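Q: A small favour: would you put together sequence and structure tokens for a protein?
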Amino acid sequence: MVAHDGRGLTVPGNSRRRGAVNKTAKGNPTAGSGGRVRRGLEGRGPTPKATNRPGHQAYRAPSKSGSKSTAKSGSKSPSRSAPAGAAGPTRTRRNPRGADTEWVAGRNAVVEALRARVPVRTLYVAEQADRDDRLREVFGYAAEHGTGILEVPRAELDRLTGGAAHQGVAARVPAYDYAHPDDLLTAAAGAGQPPPLLVALDGVTDPRNLGAVVRSAAGFGAHGVVVPERRSAGMTAGAWKASAGAAARLPVARATNLARQLGAYQQAGLVVAGLSADATAQVGDLDDADGPLVLVVGGERGGLSRLVRETCDVVVSIPMTSGLESLNAGVAAGVALYEIARRRAYA
């Protein structure tokens, strides 16, 4: 709008109507855009890829790789929550910030993890937490093993554990460092006699079953356990506890494609024997029990997948005397490994 002043000059924007804004040449940022609007419309160019943006999770992921197991098998450590027991919560949570750690929350869960020799990095206790026998055991463990213990506000512990029912106590444990499947053969060759014995799990999703298999495999002379990267339980704190410390002695590897990895073992001279309840042959009749062998155990529900079953050289079962269709995956692996170990001892 244009108005006339007392000298007959026209001044832009100096309208005398009510509510008008008096625009002067200096000291008023609304006098003009000065090109700001035009520059804003020009944009900032194409959006960078996620891997090139430092604040994005995809940017941080490659920095964690570098170990042989991660580079080849693309291992991840999915975190699963173990069901709560009657005596208290038993939960394992991944760090909300995506770090390579897991959280064990709850007094009973932390005490059980310490007793099972789960590698704990740091123990966390909420301020003014009630002292009981479990908490005193946590303090005693920290003092004996030199484990760091931090006292933090309860709200901070809530944030760190992702809102788990921690009861004022939590433990930070490192994500499991998986071996590469090929490394299991190298370790078996270095151990000399007996011939290589590996256990592969096909679709076992319960971490407690995985821990039980690791425990049985270590007890009956196996050289390692192989799990698929997808649709399978990982070595969480729950699996560590179920292994009763055997996970510290026996390597667990992750395969991107289990059927393909079994084929690679076959090319290396190992016999692949699948364990299935509907097989006519029995594990006691396995002629190759005393040679290089891979025992494949199916999942809790579907058993062996079609592709894995077709890859097996032989499929055997455990004889049952009752009408029970099948055994728990952890129990079945233990029974079969016992029979294989017995056959090897008398070979």
User: Anything to note?
Assistant: The mean pLDDT is 77. The chain has twelve helices and 13 strands.
